[in-house]
Specification:
Elements (H helix, E strand, L loop, with lengths): L3 H23 L10 H15 L2 E5 L6 E6 L7 E7 L19 E3 L2 E3 L3 H22 L5 E7 L9 H7 L1 H4 L3 E4 L11 E3 L1 E2 L1 E10 L5 E2 L10 H12 L20 H9 L4 H8 L8 H9 L5 E7 L9 E2 L2 E10 L5 H15 L4 E8 L2 E2 L5 H14 L4 E3 L9 H7 L3 E3 L15 E3 H25 L6
Parallel strand pairs: 3-6, 3-7, 7-18, 8-17
Antiparallel strand pairs: 1-2, 2-6, 4-5, 5-19, 9-16, 10-14, 10-15, 11-13, 12-14
Helix pairs in contact: 1-3, 1-13, 3-13, 4-12, 11-13
The chain binds zinc ion.
């Protein structure tokens, strides 16, 4: 069995495949403005049916999910592929060098809203399957697809959809290609994400602002109340003092530590990119802090007068907004309740408000299936992929690992500088073609793995 045939099929069909991507790109699907969503879901369904995938449009409380499957036998290994067909608004339109919804090729790249995020990557998955079937005539595993239309607005209905359709979505592995490859150009495999808890604390004084001389020492100052509380919550070295905050955190495994050590790190380069050229740490510490440790971040603070000159008042309120990034296995609601208890114990007058939350997620890098996919990726790119145990930021990966209860692997197909969410979003054609090839290799490797797993009984 040779995979050269895949490459040949791919180069024969390059133009045809690009045209299919262009068709999907031309169809607007701006979720936050509800523009073109229904039409895009319908178009995607037709494209999937043309490949031979049994497809349906499924309603949610928001934009619909496009679900498709090619199930040969319930007993077979099942791969569930996730992606999203919605895109960000194209604004500011004047900054685009070509129209945002007319795919245009310049310097080997396709410029269009959604090219990299996520239509190009989604189509690469579908065309990977199509190519594989063309070459081999059949699939060695079952494949299911779930494409949502609300990723760009925070996937508000994804968890309830997955909860309601656990049977339909039953799978052995979830595979996602979204996001960007590594800065170095090396393929990147992500095995999880941090969670997030957003909250607000509000201290109140008098019901209006008052003269700081005429009422000084008489009225309480909410800014000081809030600062005093915050100081009981976090030490100067950053350690969170809320009781039980660190209780459920899983330390990195031996393999995870090794993976973190292998990730490339250039303090100066990163420092320049974030506008803080004083990063005083090595790569291991950097990645540990970014992927294995929670944060306790103040993202906004407001009280009193901050304009020009001075206004001698005692403020009437002080507000702080926070986002707390969580790592496996911290539970957002558990952490919220702990913070709530802390506030109550230290200053019961201060109000705490829950804003939103997302659970963290991580797939063990020790799993055989992770090694199988990593090897397949390596075969395509002829380069050892970087494997990062977790993203620093948050994605709803927990719907797969926690609700569906299966491992999840994220393998971005887009170039690092795809400019997603920005004007002149683009996808490098080589990356697109590699993505198609990568899907073929992953399908093939999973087929071999399943044969192995079942002692050849299935084939
Ligand atoms: Zn996006």
């Amino acid at each position: 069995m040779t995979l050269d045939k895949i490459q040949k099929e791919l180069s024969n069909r390059k133009e045809e495949y690009l045209e299919q991507l262009f068709t999907l790109l031309r169809q607007k699907s701006i979720s936050t403005q509800n523009v073109g969503i229904t039409e895009c879901a319908q178009l995607l369904k037709e494209m999937m049916e043309e490949i031979g995938i049994e497809t349906q449009i499924m309603q949610t409380d928001g934009h619909p999910v496009v679900y498709g499957e090619l199930v040969k036998d319930e007993k077979y290994f099942t791969l569930l592929i996730y992606g999203h067909y919605d895109v960000q608004p194209p604004e500011p339109i004047d900054d685009w060098l070509s129209p945002p919804f007319e795919p245009t090729i310049r310097n080997g790249r396709i410029y269009c809203r959604g090219a990299g995020d996520n239509k190009g990557q989604l189509i690469a998955q579908l065309l990977g399957l199509k190519t594989y079937m063309k070459v081999y005539g059949d699939l060695p595993i079952n494949i299911k697809f779930i494409f949502e239309g609300e990723e760009e607005i925070g996937s508000p209905n994804l968890s309830s959809f997955v909860r309601e359709h656990k049977g339909l979505l039953k799978a052995d592995l979830v595979y996602t290609s979204d996001g960007s490859s590594h800065n170095s150009g090396a393929p990147l495999i992500l095995l999880g994400t941090r969670g997030c808890l957003d909250l607000e604390l509000k201290a109140k004084g008098a019901d209006r602002e008052n003269h700081s001389g005429n009422t000084g020492n008489i009225l309480p100052n909410p800014a000081w109340k809030l600062i005093n509380l915050l100081q009981t919550m976090c030490a100067q070295d950053g350690r969170v003092l809320v009781e039980g905050f660190y209780d459920h955190i899983l330390p990195p495994s031996k393999r995870e530590k090794e993976l973190l050590q292998k990730l490339p790190f250039d303090a100066e380069d990163i420092g320049n990119k974030v506008g803080y050229p004083y990063l005083d740490m090595n790569g291991e510490t950097y990645y540990h802090k970014l992927t294995m440790e929670p944060t306790f971040n103040i993202n906004g603070i407001q009280s009193g007068y901050t304009g020009d000159g001075i206004q001698t008042i005692i403020p009437s309120t002080a507000i702080v907004k926070m986002d707390v990034r969580l790592v496996v296995d911290q539970d957002p609601m558990d952490i919220f309740h702990k913070i709530q208890r802390h506030v109550k114990a230290h200053d019961p007058d201060i109000e705490i408000e829950f804003i939103s939350a997302m659970e963290p997620s991580r797939t063990s890098s020790d799993l055989e299936i992770v090694k199988v996919v990593t090897k397949a990726v390596q075969n395509v790119y002829q380069q050892e992929p970087l494997v990062q145990p977790s993203l620093g930021s948050s994605l709803p990966d927990y719907v797969w690992t926690k609700i569906l209860g299966v491992p999840s692997i994220i393998m971005p197909y887009a170039n690092f500088d795809q400019g997603n969410h920005s004007p002149n979003e683009n996808l490098d054609i080589e990356y697109f073609l590699n993505g198609i090839q990568c899907t073929c290799h992953v399908i093939h490797a999973l087929g071999e793995h399943a044969k192995h797993r079942n002692g050849e009984v299935l084939n």
